[in-house]
Write a structure and sequence with these properties.
Membrane topology: Multi-pass membrane protein
Domain MacB-like periplasmic core: 22-239, 501-699
Oligomer: single chain
Shape: globular
Family: Belongs to the ABC-4 integral membrane protein family.
Distance between the termini: 32 Å
Transmembrane segments: 274-298, 326-350, 370-390, 421-440, 446-467, 505-525, 730-754, 777-799, 819-839
Keywords: Cell membrane, Membrane, Transmembrane, Transmembrane helix
Structural class: alpha+beta
Length: 855
């Protein structure tokens, strides 16, 4: 019976305090919406990719690809052998598709950028001859029948402003073939094309010339005759191409079309899982901030109901009844907050999808499945119940008579001694781990610093109430001076309840801790790049691919024709094997390397002989190689090429682990399809104007579409911009935590106004104006916000500086503190304090004195 009565009391209490209910539900919504958004967004992207891959390899019964992804491909001789045995094996159609990376010029002559989506050239195969039954449909024009004719997918043609009959050029992303002139003779519709994908299809003979060395092809697709299943054809083909070799000894992978689709889904699933973990990590941050807001909210609500709960105790309700009553209200609030949070999460996910679809990711409508619904509601209820449990337990232990005498203030500040001591102990241990991390390299340092960060944050949670009184009081004493009595009153309100002030400020603290850590990492990386370029780059200009990708090896030859270029050095690279692992070798082609780069030799000569190997000092330490050491690299075709270590240089990011001589490189990369240039360094002749040299270089590389000319500052900025883009993404995600923090301050102040209604009425009655009352609340909010920001900056620097120091093992040897970001953060905190107080201050100023006093 008692439980039924308490249930009715709880429900009527919720219904009677609608504003309080709305503010409480709102605090839960803030904590759950991003969790729901993360689940919905990743499910949506996963579903869009699955829809695309469901159309891949349709009609393919068996596909042969090389087991080693860095090999030159599948021998064409093997395709001829399978074609000769097609009746015996049960092969219906056999398709050899020559393909490779390619960039097509838009109507204005600039290269068509894909935003990260594939841009490939391939072979046009008539639908009636194609193995893949869902490949494409020719929707306009005709098929290419001669070299120089291409068909283009419709989405790419629209972006490039090309149509049937348009003349343009295509640059190949790798290989020595120069850009070629083409005519668009047809448009195709491709169901597997993502938002930014480009597919340029050539006539077969030209595709073979462009994308093959005449010996290898990327894959062979086959369909089966009637009566032969996909698995039967796969097993028969596997027995032929691998000659009984299995497992790691197999030279080729033979898969059914279904396996191809599932493997592609799995490869994307790996990326999406990483993406999901990142989103969920930020969701956890938002949830952590939201948890403090929910706890703060319930602490205030329970405090406001002290007399009500005491009366229930006096008329027979037990402590358990009181706890259950509060938890019942929390469960209802959590359910409502979870449902509303789910709706808001759908909106956030839709905004994220709109942003990413413009960058080339597929978009096929939102996927709101049961995991999103369950996660939002479950998180909402569980977090709310946990947040309400401590206030409920505290309320149930207050003796009825004492509670009836208490004001509506939350039961105090209470003794902070035990939690402060615990926080101090954890802080000392965390600082000790941070110091230990300074004397350890590699992963060990990161683990120590990560553990220290966790301990320090917990220490801040425990110790912040004790810190809030002196720190907020000190901030108040400084900022109150221009405001007189109003400023003093605001300071008194801010320090009156240290638990509440600390919990309110912590929402801002945790966001700023991460902002400062990420800002310090980004600033240090950018400073290291700038210092490295300034110290090591002697070239006047750098020619690199868009997005720092590879270029045609013909770019270097074109740059060498520039009349005012004194020294041109191209860096070519190729994939090779070393100790059964895949790696990359680079070779400098052209003039003296020392003309364009600063090389600090520790041993040996900087001259790169034809069969020599120069290594970095870091490589010597990690691999144990010394001067005169014999090292054998293996080409992707299985050719062993021995080289001798003739020089050891100081670690240099521009040179990497090693550079190899030209003759050895040619033996390791005999196929033109395996050779590419990733950068060309240019030193101009003495007395030549930089603008004149730039004009000559831009003219020389213009036909290659993806090649871009940069001076030193632009080259540094190209890397800095990548870091800035990453930081912008992280800051955008962190922005949600900061928004939650601001809304949490609003929520806390709004409830505080409700709690102090009688006090506000008394102040108004004795002469305080509405403007003075608003100013009091503005200042109170500002004091708390600046306290949270100061705490966040200090903790962020305490963690961020050792973290950067621990990365010296990976070449980050300079620490740069982002002072503009830190100063801007503190100023922004003051602004946030004022903004967060606008609505609560307005509400407080509308309080009617007599009504408030007599309540």
């Amino acid at each position: 019976m008692a439980s039924n009565v308490m249930r009715k009391v709880s429900l009527r209490s919720l219904a009677a305090h609608k504003v309080r209910l709305i503010l409480t539900v709102f605090s839960v919504v803030l904590g759950t919406s991003f969790v729901a958004a993360a689940v919905i967004f990743t499910s949506t992207v996963q579903g869009s990719f699955n829809a695309i891959f469901d159309n891949v390899a349709r009609g393919v019964a068996a596909e042969v690809t090389p087991a080693d992804q860095n090999s030159p491909g599948v021998p064409l001789a093997l395709a001829d052998r399978l074609r000769a045995d097609r009746e015996k094996l049960g092969i219906d159609k056999l398709q050899v598709d020559f393909s490779g990376s390619a960039t097509i010029a838009k109507a204005d002559g600039s290269g068509l950028q894909t935003g990260g989506a594939p841009s490939i050239g391939s072979t046009y195969i008539p639908p009636e001859d194609a193995v893949d039954s869902a490949g494409f449909q020719l929707v306009e024009g005709r098929a290419p029948t001669a070299p120089g004719e291409v068909v283009l997918n419709t989405t790419a043609a629209e972006k490039a402003d090309l149509k049937v009959g348009s003349k343009t050029v295509v640059a190949l992303g790798a290989g020595v073939t120069p850009p070629i002139e083409v005519t668009v003779v047809g448009l195709i519709d491709m169901p597997a094309a993502t938002g930014g994908m480009v597919n340029v299809q050539f006539e077969r003979s030209q595709a073979e010339q462009l994308f093959s060395d005449g010996e290898y092809v990327g894959s062979i697709d086959m369909s089966a005759v009637a009566g032969v299943s996909d698995t039967e054809l796969r097993d028969r083909v596997d027995a032929v191409v691998n000659a009984g070799k299995t497992g790691d000894d197999a030279l080729f992978d033979v898969r059914t079309g279904e396996q191809v689709r599932e493997d592609q889904k799995a490869s994307v699933a790996t990326f999406l899982n990483i993406f999901r973990y990142i989103l969920l990590a930020f969701a956890a941050i938002g949830l952590l901030v939201g948890t403090f807001i929910i706890y703060n909210t319930f602490s205030m609500i329970v405090a406001q109901r002290n007399r009500e709960l005491a009366l229930l105790r006096a008329i027979g309700a037990s402590r358990t009844d009181i706890s259950r009553s509060v938890l019942l209200e929390a469960g209802i609030v959590g359910l409502l907050g979870g449902v509303v949070g789910l709706g808001l999460g759908v909106g956030i996910a839709a905004a994220m999808q709109g942003f990413t679809s413009s960058s080339g990711l597929p978009s096929d409508g939102l996927t709101v499945g049961w995991p999103a619904v369950v996660s939002a509601i479950f998180v909402g209820i569980i977090v709310t119940l946990l947040s309400a449990w401590i206030p409920a337990r505290r309320a149930s232990r207050i003796p009825p008579v004492e509670a009836m005498r208490m004001s509506a203030a939350e039961p105090g500040a209470g003794s902070l001694r035990n939690r402060t001591i615990a926080g101090a102990v954890l802080a000392v241990i965390g600082i000790a781990l941070l110091i230990g991390g300074l004397f350890v390299d590699g992963v060990g340092a990161l683990l120590l610093i990560g553990g220290a960060a966790l301990l320090i944050i917990v220490a801040v949670v425990l110790g912040a109430p004790a810190l809030s009184q002196p720190v907020v009081g000190g901030i108040g004493r400084v900022l109150q001076m221009p405001f007189g009595t109003v400023g003093k009153l605001a300071r008194t309100n801010a320090v009156r309840n240290p638990r509440r002030s600390a919990a309110t400020a912590f929402a801002l603290t945790i966001g700023l801790v991460l902002v400062v850590i990420i800002g310090t990492l980004g600033a240090s990386f950018k400073s290291a790049i700038d210092a490295g370029v300034d110290q090591q780059l002697r070239a006047d200009f750098v020619v690199a691919g868009s997005n720092n990708g590879p270029m045609s090896a013909a770019v270097g030859s074109a740059v060498e024709t520039v009349p005012d270029a004194q020294t041109v050095v191209s860096f070519d690279m190729a994939f090779v094997k070393l100790d059964d692992g895949n790696t990359v070798v680079t070779t400098p082609v052209g003039g003296p390397l020392s003309d364009v780069l600063q090389i600090d030799m520790l041993e040996g000569s900087e001259q790169v002989e034809p069969d020599a190997l120069l290594i970095s000092d870091g490589t010597r330490k990690s691999r144990g190689w010394e001067l005169g050491e014999k090292v054998t690299f293996t080409s992707t075709t299985g050719v062993d090429v021995p080289v001798t270590v003739t020089g050891i240089y100081q670690d240099n990011p521009a040179l990497g682990e090693w550079i190899i001589g030209n003759r050895a490189f040619d033996m390791l990369s005999p196929s033109k399809s395996q050779r590419m240039t990733f950068v060309v360094l240019v030193k101009g002749k003495a007395g030549v104007a930089q603008n004149a040299l730039r004009d000559q270089l831009e003219t020389a590389v213009k036909p290659f579409l993806t090649a871009q000319v940069q001076d030193k500052e632009e080259f540094k900025n190209s890397f800095s911009s990548i870091i800035d883009q990453m930081l912008a993404t992280l800051y955008a995600l962190l922005g949600l935590a900061l928004v939650i923090a601001v809304l949490g301050i609003i929520n806390t102040l709004a409830l505080s106004v409700v709690e102090r209604r009688q006090e506000i009425g008394m102040l108004r009655a004795i002469g305080m104006s509405r403007a003075q009352l608003r100013r009091t609340i503005y200042l109170e909010s500002t004091y708390i916000a600046i306290f949270g920001a100061l705490l966040g900056v200090i903790v962020g620097l305490a963690i961020g500086l050792p973290l950067v120091r621990s990365l010296r093992h990976w070449g980050l040897d300079a620490i740069t503190v982002p002072w503009p970001l830190i100063i801007g953060t503190l100023v922004g905190a003051a602004v946030v304090g004022v903004i967060a107080a606008l609505w609560p201050a307005f509400t407080a100023s509308r309080t009617k004195p007599l009504e408030a006093i007599t309540e």
